Amino acid sequence: MKEMREFFPIYPCDAAEPWQLGFQDAATPMMQGIIDLHHDIFFFLILILVFVSWILVRALWHFRAKKNPIPQRIVHGTTIEIIWTIFPSIILMFIAIPSFALLYSMDEVVVDPAITIKAIGHQWYRTYEYSDYNSTDEQALTFDSYTIPEEDPELGQSRLLEVDNRVVVPAQSHVRFLVTSADVLHSWAVPSSGVKCDAVPGRLNQTSIMVQREGVYYGQCSEIRGTNHAFMPIVVEAVSRKDYGSRVVTQLIGSH
């Protein structure tokens, strides 16, 4: 198995790829639940597609004009109407139960998060505040995050997806995000985390994530309502708790 991994390495897909049709790899339990629900619903869709196609082809073949020049005048059939009413209802129940469970789990509020980060949208950048470390105005962990211009990316950086200051979070920890805006509507969305939270001026929205593995995750503003909404990328870097602690100390000493 180890030899196979050396020849066929598996790399997580945490950013959009050319001609990508599927989801990015899940980094949180929330996104894993979304992917599982999608696969479950797709299973029912395939069954419905095959059944309806079979019925359609069979009807076209057996009731074509050459074989039945004089069509029968059938108004309705009680049995078939009962069947095509009950079966879809059962299918919808199988879809609704896991769907509502996932929906309520996504809306669940984390009572005691490890850290709280406030994301403020501006035209056209973001400000992040690590509220747990803002003891005084002189000692505050706050920074702005701008996109790297198209002509300035370094080797290995994604075009129009990289920023100058990433959001660093500890892996395997509950992180609460407070999302708002200082001017117009924005959106804080990271596909690998299964998070999309609108940033509304004068309103504080809340969401939470728990990144299960270390890595770098990319997102963008999903409110395409102005000139540069598409140029407001989001980069979340998940590190170990030890590395996260050392980075926080370094940032606080630097800001002080």
Descriptive account of the structure:
The protein has 256 residues and is α+β, with helices and mostly antiparallel strands. The protein has helices spanning 2-7, 29-62, 78-106, 241-255, and strands at residues 115-121, 126-130, 142-145, 167-170, 175-181, 186-190, 195-199, 205-209, 215-219, 234-239.
Morphology = elongated
- Biggest beta sheet attributes: 5 strands, mixed
What would the average pLDDT be, to the nearest integer?
Answer: 84
- State Rg: 25 Å
Gist?
This protein is α+β, with helices and mostly antiparallel strands and 256 residues long. It is built from 4 helices and 10 strands. Helices cover 33% and strands 21% of the residues.
Give me some keywords for this one.
five-stranded mixed sheet, 4 helices, 256 residues, alpha+beta, 33% helix, 21% strand, single chain
Q: What order do the helices and strands come in, and which of them pair?
A:
Blueprint: H1 2-7, H2 29-62, H3 78-106, E1 115-121, E2 126-130, E3 142-145, E4 167-170, E5 175-181, E6 186-190, E7 195-199, E8 205-209, E9 215-219, E10 234-239, H4 241-255
Parallel strand pairs: 1-5, 4-10
Antiparallel strand pairs: 1-2, 2-3, 5-8, 6-7, 9-10
Helix pairs in contact: 2-3
